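Handoff note, outgoing to incoming analyst
You'll be picking up this chain. Sequence as last confirmed:
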Amino acid sequence: MPNHRLSPMAGRDAHESHRVSTPLELLFDLTFALAFGLAGTQVAHVLAEGHFLTALAGYAFAAFAICWAWVNFSWFASAYDTDDWIYRLLTMIQMVGVLVLALGLKPVFDSIDHGTILDNRILVLGYVIMRLALVAQWLRAAKEDPKHRRVALTYVITLLIAQVLWVVIALVDLPIVPTFLLMLVPYAIELAGPFLAERKDGGTPWHPHHIAERYGLLTIIALGECVIGTVASVSAFVDSEGWNVDAILLCVAGLGLTFGMWWIYFVVPAGELLHRHRQRSFFWGYFHMVIFAAIAATGAGLHVAGLYIEHEAHIGAVETVLTVAVPVALYVVSLFILYMRLTASNDAFHFYLALATLAVLALAVLLAYFGVPMTYCLIALMCAPAVTVLGYELKGYREVARMTGESVH
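Most recent structure output, in case you need it:
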């Protein structure tokens, strides 16, 4: 039954059975779906104009803010989810912060594109709202959980210092390049906070299977951007050419690529491996931000393909295919790196499997260079994750079963 009274933040059982994501966590994730969507829309239009540096800088800034805010809350919730009314209200405040942050994405991209002063005030305001609500959560944990008080206060101190620096950077009007250089300081403090708290001060009672499920759910939300990008491409083609075989192939290409990316993410039982090797969680948790960003960027690339088909993009076919191929390559390479770090393995099979997957992506770019229609280039891109899926189904699953001690079916 839901809690009608306050529950002490004594820390959850790190080995609690049947621990799954709560309805509140799922609602919280919806705000990040909006943030990913707005970021993808902005970067797609900038890429279609050929402003690649603007797209890279703006998207890197936006993706870090979105992903890191989600990561911090999810690990806190894994350790201290009381689901009482104070916890729910503070979570709602964080959701408000996400929406404000999302509304600040367009000014950030516009200011970078114009090459003047970085207009990040709205985005920083939303970020600070989220972080102050999280600080309140950690202060409550510090008060009610004496065993982990030092850990909670480490989070509080690093979060507050970082937010002060973010506000100062947002209020001081500096050129874009010096502003991005100054951002490295609060970035470092943000990333160092969990490392100091979890490694130096004993850590929090986070749940490995719960946290693996949380990351998997955000992966699915990010993959939703690929579906949206596919719809944009198919819609553009149908408006231009009507329904025909190419329109169907375009739909298959986008959904097939999305399905393949989903498949290769979930082949590794992350929850079981984190349960066995909790000390490997830092790299796993941090590095996922690259994976989330790559997935959402793939959706933006598919949107660019739609703009190209509508003849609204100011870039060529090769550049258009690269807007999809590059984030997919980053996603695939990141997954292989994550797998090797989580399993502490480094075998030749996975190395050659990654190379074969990248070779298919390169083939798609080569097809665009020789003038092959965009539809068939996207079909080639769709085949890239299929290489990894095939390798797993033929051989890789045995290695995963051996590492987790499960029987092979």
